Amino acid sequence: MEFHGGTMDESVIDFSISVNPYIPAWKDRLFKRCAEISNKYLYVEWIEERFKEKFGKDTVILAGATEAFQIVGFTIMNDANVVIPLPSYGEYERIASYTAKRVFKVPPKNEIDLDLDSAFDLAKNLSNNGKSVIILGNPSNPTGKYLKMRDDLEDLANKVTIVLDEAFVDFVDEKSRWNVDHPNIIVVRSFTKSYGMPGVRAGYVKTENFKKHFEKYRSPWALGSCGYAFVEFLIEDDGTFLLKSMQSIKAESKKFENFGIFTDANFGVLKVKNAHEAQKNLDKLGIHVRNCESFGLYDRIRVSIRKPEENERLFESLRKVIK
After folding, report:
1. Bridge-partner residues for 14, per DSSP?
2. What is the DSSP string of 208-236?
3. How many CB atoms lie within 10 A of CB 245?
4. CA dist 283 to 1, 13, 22, 276, 320, Å?
5. Mapping DSSP to helix (H, G, I), strand (E, B) and coil, where does residue 302 land?
6. Residue among 102, 317, 110, 65 at smallest CA distance from 200
7. Is the backbone of residue 115 left (phi > 0), alpha (psi -120 to 50) or beta?
8. Which contacts qualify for 145-150: CB closer than 8 Å, 24 or more apart?
9. Of 194, 199, 202, 233, the residue nearest 26 (C-alpha)
């Protein structure tokens, strides 16, 4: 069972990974630059000050969100009670298994929606007897739903460390996003999904209380030459690529609503009779989707939003497979 989606079969259109189908015009220049500096040890500190000017003084560059989660799992979750509202990205439970005292998984409501009321109450109660951490994604994975800002977020953060995974927040309308500013909240961001290059590892955390923590435990030279070059071009681009491509994705998302797939991001879920069978039958038609068994959802498939002509292929195939 594929844990994160993806396929090496180039004969199919891959809807299983939630990646921007558009790629910046500077991609070729990026990889030329990558080759130019591949003979160097590249210290992230060399570019971090320029990065902080755009993304904030409380940020730390890492080799994607995955490196952030690794550090969280081995250190911040150490001897902590960890609360994970379900369904959620499988990495949360995996990293919590490293060093946490205990992991509490909060079942969803309405089959698939995060029960944040119960999760927040549990995390606060657990904080009375030691360290407590809650980790959640916003937008939520696999649904693509963006959670509304909660009035009790600050109250929770006063007692509990909150790890907020915003890997897909670039796909959400900016006016809808949470305005998070609390020293006990760790915001995790990823770039290369938004820029259509997940094979390039680059992301960051935004945190006040744990900034020095991530600086201490991140791996030296983990960005590599391509990640380092990507950050250089990212700073130069200044959001121009995102603005244009996100408009195209948002326009396409309206078409997905005709199939009952509603999302605030670039991916969403569709209820089927059997997720594994639906995936297998769609593969035969040249369409690869993510079955949601790893999320504990055996009657859902997850699809991403791609280019218009690719989406039409998906819709045509869905009509044949999903009765």
Report:
1. 288
2. STTHHHHHHHSPTTTTHHHHHHHHHHHHH
3. 21
4. 14, 9, 23, 11, 12
5. strand
6. 65
7. beta
8. 145/113, 145/262, 145/263, 145/264, 146/172, 146/176, 146/177, 146/264, 146/265, 147/114, 147/116, 149/178, 149/179, 150/116, 150/120
9. 233
Look up residue 191 and give its two tokens: 């770039």
d(CA 102, CA 77) in angstroms, rounded, equals: 10
Phi-psi region for residue 196, left (φ > 0), alpha (ψ -120 to 50) or beta? left
Number of neighbours of residue 75 by Cβ within 10 angstroms: 15
Residue 7, amino acid: T
Place of tokens 């130019």: 36
**Residue 151, beta-bridge partner list:** none
Beta pairing partners, 103: 82
Full pLDDT tens readout for the chain, 323 residues: 455 666 666 778 999 999 999 999 999 999 999 999 999 999 999 999 999 999 999 999 999 999 999 999 999 999 999 999 999 999 999 999 999 999 999 999 988 999 999 999 999 999 999 999 999 999 999 999 999 989 999 999 999 999 999 999 999 988 888 888 899 999 999 998 999 998 999 999 999 999 999 999 999 999 999 999 999 999 999 889 999 999 999 999 999 999 999 999 999 999 999 999 999 999 999 999 999 998 999 999 999 999 999 999 999 999 999 86
> Where is 117: in which H helix or E strand?
helix 116-126
Residues 6+ apart with CB under 8 A from 85: 105, 106, 108, 114, 115, 116, 118, 119, 134, 136
Contact criterion met (CB below 8 Å) for 202 and 34: no
The pair of structure tokens assigned to 70 is 């690794």
Alpha-carbon radius of gyration of the chain: 20
> Rounded CA gap, 312 and 323, in Å?
17
For residue 182, give both structure tokens.
């609390």
**Amino acid identity at 274:** N
